[in-house]
Specification:
By secondary structure, the protein is mainly α. About 70% of the residues lie in helices and about 0% in strands. It contains 7 helices and no strands. The radius of gyration is 21 Å and the shape is elongated. The termini are far apart.
């Protein structure tokens, strides 16, 4: 059975978290306690059965003493590609005045705008060249 991209992302996040936990010499129970999540929930994240929120990832990163941004990239929340809007995404995720649902909604809208603009960009560049050439004719 083929896994979706989200499933693969969550699974690789889980594998990464487990590697980091073992490297930090923490048991599942210890990390769960330090991150403020339940033991079964953390186990499900590590096994790729759950996709944690940005806040939970931030708590886990703090407990593991690693960058939350690394976890956001692994979870597919922030794009690792340059120019793909990482700073906007991080600002949304860091805003304590927003709920998790609001953060996810903003990130969804933002990523859809980026995808739309990327799809339209080649056509816009061609139109700009044509428009420039036709709207500014050289006088003899």
């Amino acid at each position: 059975m083929a896994k979706s991209k989200v499933g693969q992302t969550v699974e690789s996040l889980g594998d990464y978290l487990k590697e980091q936990r073992l490297a930090s010499r923490l048991s599942l129970r210890q990390l769960a306690q330090q991150a403020g999540v339940s033991n079964p929930y953390l186990s499900q994240i590590e096994r790729g059965l759950r996709k944690p929120s940005a806040d939970v990832l931030q708590q886990i990163a703090k407990a593991l003493r690693i960058s939350a941004e690394q976890l956001y990239v692994r979870a597919g929340i922030v794009s690792p590609e340059p120019g793909a809007g990482g700073t906007v995404e991080l600002a949304v995720l860091a805003d304590a005045g927003l709920t998790e649902r609001q953060k996810q909604s903003l990130l969804d809208v933002y990523s859809s705008f980026l995808a739309l603009n990327a799809a339209e960009r080649p056509a816009d560049d061609d139109e700009e060249t044509t428009t420039t050439a036709t709207t500014h004719p050289q006088e003899s």
